Request: fold
Amino acid sequence: MVAGAVVGAVVGCDDDSSGKPVATSSAAAPVLWDPCSEISDEVIRAAGADPATEESGIGGVHQSGWEMCTWMGDTYSVAVFSTGRTVAEFEQKPGQVDFQDVTIGGRAGRQFRVEGASKDLRCDVLFAARQGVVQISILNRASLTGIDGPCLSAERAGEVLVPTFPI
Reply:
Protein backbone atom coordinates (compact mmCIF):
# COMPACT_ATOMS: atom_id res chain seq x y z
CA MET A 1 0.00 0.00 0.00
CA VAL A 2 1.12 3.51 -0.69
CA ALA A 3 0.98 5.99 2.16
CA GLY A 4 0.27 9.66 1.51
CA ALA A 5 3.33 11.85 1.17
CA VAL A 6 3.88 15.49 1.88
CA VAL A 7 4.52 17.36 -1.31
CA GLY A 8 7.40 19.80 -0.94
CA ALA A 9 7.79 23.21 -2.47
CA VAL A 10 7.33 23.38 -6.19
CA VAL A 11 9.92 25.45 -8.00
CA GLY A 12 9.37 26.74 -11.49
CA CYS A 13 10.25 29.59 -13.79
CA ASP A 14 8.26 32.56 -14.99
CA ASP A 15 9.33 35.47 -17.15
CA ASP A 16 9.75 38.91 -15.62
CA SER A 17 8.77 41.97 -17.66
CA SER A 18 12.12 41.87 -19.50
CA GLY A 19 11.51 38.29 -20.66
CA LYS A 20 14.25 36.84 -18.43
CA PRO A 21 13.44 33.70 -16.42
CA VAL A 22 12.68 34.28 -12.72
CA ALA A 23 12.49 31.45 -10.15
CA THR A 24 9.12 31.04 -8.43
CA SER A 25 7.96 28.74 -5.67
CA SER A 26 4.79 27.68 -3.93
CA ALA A 27 4.05 25.19 -1.18
CA ALA A 28 1.48 22.49 -1.87
CA ALA A 29 -0.92 21.06 0.69
CA PRO A 30 -0.09 17.60 2.05
CA VAL A 31 -1.40 14.69 0.02
CA LEU A 32 -3.71 12.79 2.33
CA TRP A 33 -3.82 9.03 2.61
CA ASP A 34 -7.17 7.74 1.27
CA PRO A 35 -8.70 4.96 3.40
CA CYS A 36 -11.25 4.03 0.70
CA SER A 37 -8.53 3.10 -1.77
CA GLU A 38 -5.84 1.95 0.67
CA ILE A 39 -7.73 -0.43 2.98
CA SER A 40 -8.51 -3.79 1.37
CA ASP A 41 -11.91 -5.48 1.44
CA GLU A 42 -10.30 -8.33 3.39
CA VAL A 43 -9.20 -5.93 6.15
CA ILE A 44 -12.65 -4.28 6.26
CA ARG A 45 -14.30 -7.69 6.72
CA ALA A 46 -11.77 -8.55 9.48
CA ALA A 47 -12.69 -5.23 11.15
CA GLY A 48 -16.33 -6.37 11.33
CA ALA A 49 -17.80 -4.42 8.42
CA ASP A 50 -19.08 -5.10 4.91
CA PRO A 51 -16.90 -3.67 2.11
CA ALA A 52 -19.98 -3.42 -0.15
CA THR A 53 -21.36 -0.67 2.14
CA GLU A 54 -18.39 1.66 1.54
CA GLU A 55 -19.20 5.37 1.51
CA SER A 56 -16.62 8.03 0.74
CA GLY A 57 -16.90 11.48 2.33
CA ILE A 58 -20.09 12.42 4.17
CA GLY A 59 -23.13 11.20 2.31
CA GLY A 60 -20.86 10.65 -0.68
CA VAL A 61 -19.66 14.28 -0.64
CA HIS A 62 -15.92 14.95 -0.35
CA GLN A 63 -14.89 17.18 2.58
CA SER A 64 -12.03 19.58 1.92
CA GLY A 65 -8.98 18.76 4.04
CA TRP A 66 -10.16 15.23 4.75
CA GLU A 67 -10.26 11.77 3.22
CA MET A 68 -13.09 9.77 4.80
CA CYS A 69 -14.49 6.31 4.35
CA THR A 70 -17.25 4.52 6.27
CA TRP A 71 -18.42 0.91 6.22
CA MET A 72 -21.40 -0.69 8.00
CA GLY A 73 -21.21 -3.81 10.14
CA ASP A 74 -23.88 -5.83 11.92
CA THR A 75 -23.57 -3.93 15.20
CA TYR A 76 -21.60 -0.78 14.35
CA SER A 77 -20.22 1.40 11.59
CA VAL A 78 -16.47 1.82 11.09
CA ALA A 79 -15.19 5.13 9.77
CA VAL A 80 -11.58 5.96 8.98
CA PHE A 81 -10.60 9.60 8.51
CA SER A 82 -7.35 11.10 7.26
CA THR A 83 -6.47 14.77 7.75
CA GLY A 84 -3.57 17.17 8.00
CA ARG A 85 -4.72 18.29 11.46
CA THR A 86 -2.78 17.38 14.59
CA VAL A 87 -3.73 15.38 17.66
CA ALA A 88 -3.37 18.61 19.70
CA GLU A 89 -6.02 20.30 17.54
CA PHE A 90 -8.46 17.48 18.29
CA GLU A 91 -7.70 17.74 22.01
CA GLN A 92 -8.51 21.46 22.00
CA LYS A 93 -11.85 21.12 20.20
CA PRO A 94 -14.81 21.75 22.53
CA GLY A 95 -17.06 18.73 23.01
CA GLN A 96 -14.30 16.17 22.58
CA VAL A 97 -13.64 14.67 25.99
CA ASP A 98 -12.19 11.78 27.98
CA PHE A 99 -8.87 11.65 26.11
CA GLN A 100 -6.60 8.80 27.09
CA ASP A 101 -3.54 7.06 25.70
CA VAL A 102 -4.10 3.67 24.09
CA THR A 103 -2.03 1.22 22.09
CA ILE A 104 -3.81 -0.55 19.25
CA GLY A 105 -2.17 -2.74 16.65
CA GLY A 106 1.17 -1.97 18.30
CA ARG A 107 0.77 1.77 17.69
CA ALA A 108 0.27 4.55 20.22
CA GLY A 109 -2.95 6.52 19.87
CA ARG A 110 -5.29 8.90 21.70
CA GLN A 111 -8.80 7.66 22.39
CA PHE A 112 -11.63 10.13 23.01
CA ARG A 113 -15.39 10.49 23.15
CA VAL A 114 -17.72 13.16 21.77
CA GLU A 115 -20.15 14.73 24.23
CA GLY A 116 -23.84 14.51 23.50
CA ALA A 117 -26.48 11.90 22.80
CA SER A 118 -24.10 9.53 21.03
CA LYS A 119 -21.35 9.63 23.70
CA ASP A 120 -22.08 6.10 24.87
CA LEU A 121 -22.42 4.83 21.29
CA ARG A 122 -19.29 6.31 19.71
CA CYS A 123 -15.55 5.99 20.31
CA ASP A 124 -12.74 7.60 18.34
CA VAL A 125 -9.01 6.91 18.27
CA LEU A 126 -6.38 9.19 16.72
CA PHE A 127 -3.02 8.08 15.38
CA ALA A 128 -0.36 10.66 14.55
CA ALA A 129 1.10 10.37 11.05
CA ARG A 130 3.53 12.45 8.99
CA GLN A 131 0.57 13.91 7.10
CA GLY A 132 -1.28 14.77 10.35
CA VAL A 133 -3.73 12.26 11.81
CA VAL A 134 -5.53 9.04 10.88
CA GLN A 135 -8.65 8.39 12.95
CA ILE A 136 -10.87 5.38 13.61
CA SER A 137 -14.44 6.09 14.65
CA ILE A 138 -16.83 3.36 15.80
CA LEU A 139 -20.53 4.14 16.12
CA ASN A 140 -22.68 1.42 17.67
CA ARG A 141 -26.22 0.97 16.40
CA ALA A 142 -28.52 2.64 18.92
CA SER A 143 -31.27 0.07 18.36
CA LEU A 144 -29.13 -2.79 19.68
CA THR A 145 -28.56 -3.72 23.30
CA GLY A 146 -26.15 -6.16 24.91
CA ILE A 147 -23.34 -5.44 22.43
CA ASP A 148 -19.73 -4.51 23.14
CA GLY A 149 -18.98 -0.90 23.99
CA PRO A 150 -17.70 1.20 21.09
CA CYS A 151 -14.18 1.58 22.52
CA LEU A 152 -13.78 -2.19 22.81
CA SER A 153 -15.02 -2.49 19.21
CA ALA A 154 -12.58 0.28 18.15
CA GLU A 155 -9.75 -1.66 19.76
CA ARG A 156 -10.71 -4.91 18.02
CA ALA A 157 -11.29 -3.28 14.62
CA GLY A 158 -8.12 -1.26 15.06
CA GLU A 159 -6.00 -4.38 15.49
CA VAL A 160 -6.50 -5.09 11.77
CA LEU A 161 -6.96 -1.52 10.51
CA VAL A 162 -4.01 0.24 12.18
CA PRO A 163 -1.29 -1.77 10.41
CA THR A 164 -2.63 -0.40 7.09
CA PHE A 165 -2.28 3.25 8.24
CA PRO A 166 0.57 5.48 7.11
CA ILE A 167 3.24 6.32 9.64
Summary: Confidence is low (pLDDT under 50) at residues 1-18, 21-26. Residues 34-164 form one domain. The chain has four helices and nine strands. The first strand starts at residue 10 and ends at 15.
